[in-house]
Amino acid sequence: MARRDGSGRGETRGVRALERGLAVLAAMNRHKVASVVELARETRLPRPTVYRLLETLGRAGFVTRSGSADRFCLARRVRTLSDGFVDDEWITTIATPLMAAFTAAHVWPVALMTFEEGRMLIRETTHPASSLSIDYGMVGRRLPMLRTAAGRSYLAFCPANERRTILDMLSHSPEPEDRYDERRLPALLRDIRARGCALQDREINPKTSGISVPIVGQRLLGCVSMVWIASALTLEEAQQRFLTPLLTLASRIAGEVDDRRVYGFSERKPGASLRQLGRTRGSHNEIAGNNVSKPSSTRSAAMNGVTPR
User: Fold this and answer.
1) Are 118 and 170 in contact, with CB atoms under 8 Å apart?
2) Is residue 192 a contact partner of residue 152, using CB atoms and an 8 Å limit?
3) SS3 helix, strand, coil % of the chain, rounded to 5?
4) What is the pTM of this model?
5) Is the Cβ–Cβ distance between 50 and 43 less than 8 Å?
6) Which of 57, 66, 255, 307 has the fewest Cβ atoms nearer than 10 Å?
7) Alpha helix (H) ranges present in the chain?
8) Using the 8-state DSSP alphabet, how is residue 2 labeled?
9) Are residues 72 and 111 both part of a single domain?
C-alpha cells in the first residue's frame, strides 16, 4: 500500500492502482482465458504491472490460472462484485435520457415505475422538464397497484406465479385501495394484455389521467407511464396518439438493460446490439413518434373498467 507523504500523492497512487485493476478485470471479462501479453496489449499497461495486478487479484480470489502457467481467467468470486447491483439500478440510468427525449418531443411527462413491496415505486420522472406538468416531487413515492395504470400494467404482464403472489399480498393488506373484485380482475388484466397498455382516469389525481406500458426484456423490469391533464385529452385520444411512442420507449429501455446485463463488467459496445436494432430499429426519432408505423388497430371499448369521455 502506498505511503502518504502529506501531499495526497500516496492516496492518488492508490486510486490509480484500483483503476488499473478494474481495467484488467474488464478486459478479462471480454475473454474466457487471457495471457499477460494479451491483457497488457488491451489495457495498454506494462506487462510487469499486469502480472502484479493478476497476482493481487488471484490472492483476493477474483482471478485464477487456467492450465497454462501464463494464462488466466476470472474466478467464481468475481460474481460477488455484481450481485448487489440489480436491474432496477441500471434501468433508471438507462431510462432517464430516453424519457427526456420522449417529453421533449411530446411535452407530456413520463415516469419510470418498478414494483416494490406491494406498491409501484416512482424511480424517475420528467415532470420538472414538462411545461404541462402539475405534479412535482414524485420521485420516491409508492403508489397503489390497483389504482394506477402502472400497477395494473405490471399485474397484467408479470408471470402468473408472481401475479398470484402479489394478489395474495394485496388480499391481506388492510388498505382499502388494495381491495379488488376477484371476478372482474382477470378479465380486466386480459383486456390490458390484449391492448398492450393500461389506463387510469383521475384515480390518483382528480385532474390527471395516465397510460402505462410494460418494460419487458429478459424479464418484466417495470413500467413507463405518461400522465396528462384529463381535460386536454380523452383516454381514447391518448391511446391513439401516444401508445406507439410509449411502446417504442419501453422497448429501447428493455433492450439497453439487456445489453448491459450481457456485457457485465465491460463497457457497452459502440452502437446498439443486433437484438436491440431488430426490436426497435432506430433512435430518439422513434421515441418521438417519427418513422414508426402505428398499430393496425386499437381497441376503444371500455378501458380498465372506465368508459372514455
Assistant:
1) yes
2) yes
3) 45, 20, 35
4) 0.63
5) yes
6) 307
7) 9-29, 36-43, 47-59, 87-106, 149-157, 160-171, 185-195, 235-263, 274-280, 284-287
8) P
9) no
What is the C-alpha separation between 139 and 85, in angstroms, rounded? 20
| Residues constituting the chain | 309
- Domains in the chain, number: 2
- The sheet with strand 34-35 has its strands ordered as 34-35, 68-74, 63-66
Can you read off the three cell numbers belonging to residue 281?
430499429
| Residue in the structure block whose three cell numbers are 380482475 | 185
- On whether the CB atoms of residues 88 and 114 are closer than 8 A, the answer is yes
3-state DSSP assignment of residue 198: strand
Quote the crossing angle between the two packed helices 47-59 and 36-43, to the nearest 10°.
110
The answer to whether the beta carbons of residues 140 and 122 sit under 8 Å apart is: yes
Q: Residue 209: CB partners within 8 Å, gap ≥ 6?
A: 199, 200, 201, 202, 227, 228, 230, 233, 235, 238
Q: Are residues 69 and 194 in the same domain?
A: no
Same domain membership, residue 172 and residue 94: yes
Q: What is the pLDDT of residues 157-212, one digit of tens each?
A: 999 999 999 999 999 999 999 999 889 999 999 999 999 999 999 888 889 999 99
Identify the domain boundary among 81, 105, 123.
81
Do residues 238 and 83 lie in contact, with contact meaning Cβ atoms separated by under 8 Å? no
Reported as a single tens digit per residue, the pLDDT across 228-252 is 999 999 999 999 999 999 999 999 9
Structure-block grid coordinates of residue 246: 410509449
Closest Cα to residue 119, out of 155, 86, 157? Answer: 155
Q: Which triple of cell numbers denotes residue 256?
A: 439497453
Q: What is the dihedral of CA 273, 277, 283, 287, to 10 degrees?
A: -120
Mark which of 81, 105, 133 sits at the end of a domain.
81
First to last CA, the chain: 70
Q: Transcribe 88-107 into DSSP letters.
A: HHHHHHHHHHHHHHHHHHH-
